[in-house]
Amino acid sequence: MMIGTPELNEDKHELAYIIDLVYEKSRVRLHEGKEQLIRARLGKRIRLYGFNSLREYIHFLKSTPEELTHVVDSLTTNYTHFLREKDHFEFLASAAANHQANNSKSSFKVWSAACATGEEPYSMSFYLSDNSLASRVSNWSILATDISTKALETARRGIYPSDKIGMVPQEWLPKFFQKGSRDWEGWFRVKESIRQRIQFKQLNLLGFYPFSDLFEVIFCRNVMIYFDRETQKQLIDKLAATLSPGGLLFIGHSESLNGIQGPLNCVSPSIYQRPS
Ligand SMILES: C[S@@+](CC[C@H](N)C(=O)[O-])C[C@H]1O[C@@H](n2cnc3c(N)ncnc32)[C@H](O)[C@@H]1O
């Protein structure tokens, strides 16, 4: 099989090695049919180092553990956008307001558990800052994590081209973004006052969680879809244990916890609650 230049002479054995490695590190299972994606994405790394084949690259990978991050980054998909599945952010804002009304002294802790390039936690912060229901909630914090260091770099920077912010209501732009000029014409940066309220960290959802506090809300959306059922079940048990009593777990609209929801109650499609 050949791709671009230089020629790559990988075979099934090498592709299987990469598929198993990505599964071991992220639990993302690259099924049959993803060979083309692997070739295209790793082709960039192979060319970068001047190797001639996937085999040579794997040889290098085995002796260079830090390169593993690039393999996982290249092969896990980071697709996201601002206000994706918008009803979840509206639900978040009213949950924050309820929390404030019932526990005015305790903080409202939110975790965006697969934040990709940051649009999800920034959308949360817009709602927590602006929504009239949540406007009385001042004591909130957001932890945003992802396995991909590359996606996290973009998230921390908070700089997006104008076509990425089309979903953000016009009236929010001056409130939450700085508009770029001259060299930055066509780019928008999330204002520092918002950026500094979000803590970005690398974390593997299937690994150890180094938290001492429980969360009132966890968004774990559009990532479970890549895991097998057994891994999804383990993940839900871990997330449920990280929610405060009465806390809410949001999953993607196209995901389902049928048969694996453990201790959580379904409060609305794609929203689950830990019993109080
Ligand atoms: C499709 S994006 C979803 C982004 C956002 N939650 C949304 O719904 O728009 C999936 C993200 O999951 C991350 N991911 C994949 N496996 C992971 C793991 N084991 N631990 C943490 N994040 C992971 C990927 O790096 C990617 O950024």
Describe the strand arrangement of the main beta sheet, using strand numbers: 6-2-1-7-8-10-9
Within CATH, the superfamily of the largest domain carries the name: Vaccinia Virus protein VP39
Total beta strand runs? 10
Distance between the termini: 56 Å
The description of the largest β-sheet is: 7 strands, mixed
H/E topology pattern: HHHHHEHEHEHEEHEEHEEE
Write down the CATH topology of the largest domain: Rossmann fold
So, CATH architecture of the largest domain?
A: 3-Layer(aba) Sandwich
Shape: globular
Q: What average pLDDT do the residues reach?
A: 90
Brief summary of the model shown:
The protein has 276 residues and is α/β, with parallel strands linked by helices. It has helices at residues 12-26, 35-49, 54-63, 68-75, 87-102, 119-130, 149-157, 173-176, 192-195, 229-242, and strands at residues 108-112, 140-146, 159-161, 177-179, 187-190, 198-202, 215-219, 243-250, 265-268, 271-273.
Question: What this model shows, in words?
Answer:
The chain starts with 11 loop residues before the first helix and ends with a strand. Mean pLDDT is 90; it is low at 1-10. The chain is built from 10 helices and 10 strands. It has 276 residues and is an alpha/beta fold. α5 packs across α6 (119-130). The strands form 2 sheets. It has a 7-stranded mixed β-sheet. S-adenosylmethionine is lined by residues 26-28, 76-80, 84, 114, 116, 120, 146-148, 151, 204-206, 221-223, 252.
